User: Fold this.
Amino acid sequence: MGTTELIVEPGRQDVVVVHDFEAPPEVAFRAYTDPELMPRWKGSERFAVVVDEHDLRVGGRWRLVMTRADGTEYPMRGVFHEVSAPHRLVSTYEFEPGGPGALQLVVETFEPTPTGCRLTSVSLFASVEDRDGWVPSGGLESGTRASMAMLDEVLAS
Assistant:
């Protein structure tokens, strides 16, 4: 299993996630972006995930709904701005109106390593206040670590 590092520095507008996969970029990128596989890892064990839309191309839209055990739904959406498989993905990310959080620009890179690849995901917010308002919602660190561990399991299968 890979290692996950979260970088949330005070006074900055970004959240950085770094995860090392024991799979080459081609395999990790596919699992990361395949709408059939995403429900198996995205949202960790705390949410059921339904991918409503996933048009993986520049200008394509994505939408998914994460549902907690109590039935609370968190619909989110975005647009792909760059798709350079298997090394780079740029998209927006936002909860639909009424949900928590603010619009983010997310840049994700998959770099080869001697044992697989490294995902670096940078989520950039419009302001430090937006970032700081989003970080505590939903257990960012534990949820991210759990999702990456579940994605490691998907890659191993």
About this structure: Strands lie at 4-7, 14-21, 48-54, 61-67, 73-84, 88-95, 104-113, 116-125. The two ends are 12 Å apart (CA to CA).
